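Recall the central idea of this unit: under ordinary conditions, the amino acid sequence of a chain determines the structure it adopts. In this exercise we apply that idea directly, starting from the sequence alone.
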Amino acid sequence: MIKANDIYKEYGEKDARFPVLKGVSLCIEEGDFVVLLGPSGSGKSTLLNVLSGLEKPDGGSICYDGEDIAGFSDEQLTVFRKENIGFIFQQYYLLPNLTVDKNVKMGADLAGNKEYRKIIEAVGLGEKLQKYPHELSGGEQQRVSVARALAKKPRVLFLDEPTGALDEETGRMVLHYIDSMQKQLGFTVIMVTHNVNIAEMAKTVMKMGSGKIVDIYENSLQKSAYEIGW
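Accordingly, the structure predicted from this sequence is:
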């Protein structure tokens, strides 16, 4: 379980500091599919960053199974992320001089996963192992980033607008792979989006506004990537 209590985060210098998170509290159960939904500037990406250990909050606690990571040192956070967390962003962040196989192997090596090619097969790129990023479409590159994140066997997969740079057909395909792998492997998903349609795929939706969670609800029926609007 992830339990955050009274999280605050500010940016800026001295008198020019401005609050982005204003006392956020939440609980996320193991294996949940959570969407953080809200407009630009609502604080959802900042919340994702502090929940995942990419950034430290200025106040509050973030507990994973009772262990508060908010007080971790930078070195402790690095180890925590390595052992527990996967990331998928709007930008693919692939290494251009490495093949599909070697990009994914980078994530797999962090977990000692020697069967990572099964993940590449699962996201439909089994025939692209020796291709380089510039030889792939945008959707294929995003699927490589999905495979790389999953190859390290994360407990929690964080996604920040993963389909923001993709067209509808490709976006649905990427969401389908993420959804399928989550059902197969059972990891927790926490996804940031401003797209209310994508929120229909989640079990739990947390709506954000002005640095706070303004509503939490569960979908009675989780739709697939091919059932939602776009």
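The first strand starts at residue 2 and ends at 11.
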